[in-house]
Amino acid sequence: MDKVVKDAAEALAKAGVRDGATIMMSGFGLCGIPEKLIAATKALGVKDLTIMSNNAGVDDFGIGLLLQSRQVKRMISTYVGENDLFESQFLGGELEVELTPQGTFAEKIRAGGAGIPAFFTPTGYGTQISEGGLPIRYNKDGTVDLASAKKEVREFKGKMYVMEESLTADFAFVKAARGDRSGNLVFNATARNFGPVMAMAGQTTIAEVEELVSVGELDPEAIVTPSIYVDHIFQGTDYEKRIEQRTTRPKSS
Hints:
Layout: H1 8-15, E1 22-25, H2 35-44, E2 49-52, H3 64-68, E3 72-77, H4 84-91, E4 96-99, H5 102-113, E5 118-121, H6 128-131, E6 135-138, E7 144-147, E8 153-156, E9 159-165, E10 169-180, E11 185-186, H7 195-201, E12 202-213, E13 232-235
Parallel strand pairs: 1-2, 1-10, 2-3, 3-4, 10-12, 12-13
Antiparallel strand pairs: 5-9, 6-7, 8-9, 10-11
């Protein structure tokens, strides 16, 4: 089955992306983010979105573009330290945020894609992750308006574990290095962290790829995400591939 669409705008139209949608967006830092789908989402103007992503981009790139246009209602993330706009919106009561340990976040998505409703992990036991009270939404005066709830804990073989519910989404936006016309995907290096599991956990998955090939051209042993998880695919061009944070090594004396 040929799943190719012309561009990101056509993919969003065919998928039916709408106000209030939950969307998983792949990427680690600014590596492997669905740049074209993010830009098309901004142009579409849908609002009240819940975005599930490892991080929130930077002020003027990646998911930061959707924060600029106030299209995001809630972020479910693990690390958001490079985005001043995100910080100001969160602390100012404009944005809801669910912070999740990174490994737990990955497993919540993997479990969702596998049809597992919940699992137990030792991560976060004895902290606000399990005990509740972690701020999700602030009032404008800085007080907490909404906080996380207490989670179930259970002992297994003498060790305490926290129950975490899995994550699924209306849509998954992923970026891969290569893909074929039926939707088989090959991810490059770090982009493999969240792309494959998100493709499984989205009810409708859209993939943008740097190289689109005919069916049969991909090495079957190299395919990470099989086509059954992908609904629409297109080839993007002119990717910026920014670096989230540059560090300069001091010159030796």
